[in-house]
Write a structure and sequence with these properties.
Length: 178
């Protein structure tokens, strides 16, 4: 499989408040690259979000804004590229909200949600949260809510599902996002 696993963290409850992004690139069923960037959302940080991911306003004060970061990675989001996320509606929503906030073009790409795939492929599990999926599939997740750790875990979940059930079992879950 070839895909990119994506995970955002946000400064507050607004989807426009992306404060970090991680991407894990997979080619021919192997992780071949990683991208991690703190983002200055130019918005206040809520204490609840800080408790979850540990990123504070002072950590991002010199970080690029979303448009500066997007210029580096926009080429990865193309019509036939598959982008995976665990709870993809959240991450796709953050991407879309940030792009619209800065009046940037929202790309068309294929999206797959490993929450949905795991619910269908492993229906007997207690829940399908990222940490539980990792535990059940023997995938290491040391720092949950660190965007890079979560992206790696998402990539490993999709790879494991592909190994166990075949890529054709996953195709129905891919949908066009735009």
């Amino acid at each position: 499989m070839n895909f990119i696993a994506m995970d955002f963290e946000t400064a507050n409850y607004s989807p426009e408040s992306a404060c970090s992004l991680a991407l894990v690139m997979v080619q021919q069923d192997k992780i071949v690259g990683e991208y991690y960037q703190l983002i200055n959302p130019k918005m206040p940080f809520y204490s609840r979000n800080i408790q979850i991911h540990g990123i504070r306003e002072e950590d991002v004060k010199d970080a690029p804004t979303f448009p500066e970061m997007w210029a580096e990675i926009a080429h990865l989001y193309q019509e036939h590229h598959l982008i995976a996320a665990h709870n993809a509606p959240f991450d796709n929503g953050v991407l879309r909200a940030c792009l619209k906030k800065y009046e940037l073009t929202v790309p068309k790409y294929l999206s797959i949600d490993t929450v949905k795939t795991s619910k269908k492929l492993f229906p007997t599990w207690d829940n399908h949260r990222l940490d539980n999926c990792c535990k059940n599939l023997n995938i290491t997740l040391l720092h949950h809510h660190d965007a890079l750790e979560d992206s790696r875990a998402c990539a490993e979940i999709l790879l494991k599902e592909s190994q166990l059930f075949g890529p054709s079992a996953l195709k129905p879950f891919a949908k066009v996002e735009n």
